[in-house]
């Protein structure tokens, strides 16, 4: 991915067989009529019922991904804690909870969601670089499994809160291993100088602080080095630092039982070759076993990314400056990834499986040049009123959506066993300004 100005997602199209395997990978197939099915359910039927734009998630795919990841650990003691930030819909959370997942949360809002979806407190880990006192207090009151601290200042706050309040709590220390990853710079979080993780040279100070606070127990050391990682090398490099940290804390008399590798396992959006979970864990296994720790991972994207599509309707066709443009009803407020990370998402017609007839810019209705879903995409002839499916939209899609341009956020639908159900209705436009006060000083005397 690139950050240097002009969007780089242009290409003249993929071969039919690449596209077919990409569709299959995302649980999509076509009926004889050409209509797209997600896990056997017609996307056209769904949007005929709920309109567009709509996110549709495939429950079976999420369950399958969880099982594949969970099994990759074999008999190595481990816990998978789903990173709620990737897709926080309660239905998605509930099915992961039922699969046996824990929850990795980063805010008080995610804590409430995780609890509302049924996660027991002892399967919730509170990560995040900037937790407020209110959020820390809520986590302490809930009795979450662990609070992963990322700075000395946070540790000091927590020490005061524990001493003056609940009395005890288990923490983890997320270190900054200072490793580089080959991913978009905005999602490469393991490098020194960034806001993430405790720098290793501050670890002994953190341990002294722990010694002074008997109510704080060190339950784990962890890292999270980045997202959409396609290679095991940065995990190996990070693990070296993590083991050094583990050695330091053990030498200081602490007995953490959890080693956290973070999330970050990448997926295929286009032509990437992502690691299978087994390929991820195998090169680390021996080292992990030797630690005697329970291994914790916090995947988000891997579990839900390719289990969701965003369906949008073509509003208008336009020809301008030699380019063919389809203006659709989903914009950067619905799916921010192309605008923010120049991310590539495959785009296919919902109604037609026919061969491409030309290249189209698929753009949203928001008043920004960066409001595009894909540029120069090979697509069949498209008319206003037809629909497109944006693939790989299950992670960081709805979760990052906004009301920019006073647009209501999309509906969300879950597909399972040939059925579909709305799991979040489309927002109502009047709700967007319901709590605003147009004339705040109306009652004041002149
Ligand atoms: N753990 C921590 C502490 C994290 O910060 C993250 C993601 C994860 C786990 C899960 O990472 P994953 O397995 O999903 O890669 N909005 C960006 C991704 C931001 C990731 C932020 N942290 C995107 O759309 O690519």
Give structural attributes.
446 residues, alpha/beta, Lyase, Ornithine Decarboxylase, Chain A, domain 1, TIM Barrel, nine-stranded mixed beta sheet, eight-stranded parallel beta barrel, 12 helices, 21 strands, 28% helix, binds ligand LLP
Q: Structural class from helices and strands?
A: alpha/beta
Number of individual domains: 2
CATH architecture of the largest domain: Alpha-Beta Barrel
CATH class of the largest domain: Alpha Beta
Q: What hetero molecules are in the model? A: ligand LLP
Could you please say which CATH topology of the largest domain applies here? Answer: TIM Barrel
Between the first and last Cα atoms, what is the distance in angstroms? 58 Å
What is the oligomer described by this structure?
single chain
**How large is the share of residues in beta strands?**
15-25%
């Amino acid at each position: 991915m690139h950050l240097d100005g002009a969007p780089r997602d242009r290409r003249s199209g993929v071969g039919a067989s690449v596209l077919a395997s990409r569709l299959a990978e995302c649980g999509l197939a076509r009926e004889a009529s050409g209509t797209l099915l997600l896990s056997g359910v017609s996307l056209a039927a769904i949007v005929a019922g709920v309109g567009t734009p709509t996110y549709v998630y495939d429950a079976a795919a999420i369950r399958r991904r969880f099982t594949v990841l969970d099994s990759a650990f074999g008999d190595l003691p481990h816990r998978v804690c789903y990173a709620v930030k990737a897709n926080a819909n309660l239905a998605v959370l509930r099915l992961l909870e039922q699969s046996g997942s824990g929850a990795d949360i980063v805010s008080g809002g995610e804590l409430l969601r995780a609890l509302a979806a049924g996660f027991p407190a002892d399967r919730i880990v509170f990560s995040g670089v900037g937790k407020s006192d209110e959020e820390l207090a809520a986590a302490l009151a809930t009795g979450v499994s662990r609070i992963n601290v990322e700075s000395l200042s946070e540790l000091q706050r927590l020490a005061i809160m524990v001493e003056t309040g609940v009395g005890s709590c288990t923490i983890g220390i997320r270190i900054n291993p200072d490793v580089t990853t080959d991913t978009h710079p905005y999602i490469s979080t393991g490098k020194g100088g960034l806001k993430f993780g405790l720098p290793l040279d501050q670890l002994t100070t953190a341990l002294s602080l722990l010694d002074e606070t008997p109510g704080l127990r060190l339950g784990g050391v962890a890292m999270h080095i980045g997202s959409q990682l396609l290679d095991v090398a940065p995990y190996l490099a990070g693990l070296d630092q993590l083991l050094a940290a583990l050695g330091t804390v053990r030498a200081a008399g602490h007995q953490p039982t959890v080693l956290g590798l973070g999330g970050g396992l990448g997926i295929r959006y286009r032509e990437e070759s992502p690691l299978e979970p087994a390929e991820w864990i195998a090169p680390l296994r021996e080292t992990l076993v030797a630690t005697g720790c329970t291994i914790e991972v916090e995947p988000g994207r891997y579990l839900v990314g390719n289990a969701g599509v965003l369906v949008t309707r073509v509003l208008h066709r336009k020809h301008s400056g030699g380019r063919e443009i389809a203006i659709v009803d989903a914009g950067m407020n619905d799916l921010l990834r192309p605008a923010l990370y120049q991310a590539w998402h495959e785009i296919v017609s919902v109604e037609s499986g026919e061969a491409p007839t030309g290249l189209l810019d698929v753009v949203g209705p928001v008043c920004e040049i960066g409001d595009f879903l894909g540029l120069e995409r090979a697509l069949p002839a498209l008319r206003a009123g037809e629909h497109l499916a944006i693939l790989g939209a299950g992670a960081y899609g709805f979760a990052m959506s906004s009301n920019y341009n006073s647009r209501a956020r999309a509906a969300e639908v879950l597909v399972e066993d040939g059925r579909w159900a709305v799991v979040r209705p489309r927002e109502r436009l009047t709700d967007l300004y319901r709590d605003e006060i147009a004339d705040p000083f109306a009652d004041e005397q002149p």
